[in-house]
Design a protein that fits this description.
The chain is built from eight helices and eight strands. By secondary structure, the chain is an alpha/beta fold. Helix 5 crosses helix 6. It is globular, with a radius of gyration of 17 Å. The relative contact order is 0.17.
Amino acid sequence: MSTVDYLKNLRIPTKENPLRILFSSCLLGAKCGVNGDNYGEYSSVLKLLQYENIKFIPFCPEDFSFGTPREMCDIYGGDGFDVLNGNAKVLTSSGIDWTSGMIKAAEKMLAVAQENDIELAIMMDVSAACGNRVIYDGDRFAEEKKYQIGMGVCGAKLFQSGFKIISWREYESLEILYSKIDSNHKIDTNARNFDKNDWYLHYFKP
């Protein structure tokens, strides 16, 4: 089942039985970014904070394994699935191998998801940990940085275990989610998910 279809079939949550959603902590404003910041505000996610029929389960896998502040890291030689399979590595900007720590972070994020019986994860895209649509292909600071379609290590771990993931800019999916949470919400039919926006279609054109 596609993620959009899954969201359309989500139950209607109540205050007594809220929708259980796992979030990348930074999306909710936690200062767990590499420099101790929260990477800014993400209105598409912060909008959800006004509702009492959501159970918010925040987790930052990189902070769990590497602390805050910390170095930036990217995946070299593949995507998150390749890291989990032992065919790619996670390296910091200075070249330190964080592969083992990232896998431990992914295992912990999966445990949090399972313990809370989550129904959806909303995560930070392009991240080597939480990405679910697009990640960097190697060093993000390279003179000619490259992107690849793929998931980060933690996103891949959740996906392998059957959990549905969207990013903060999957606007079509979020519109459906808003309508499930708020019966008065009118879906914006012009909203598009990340894989349908102009940048994505141009960059990854066949």
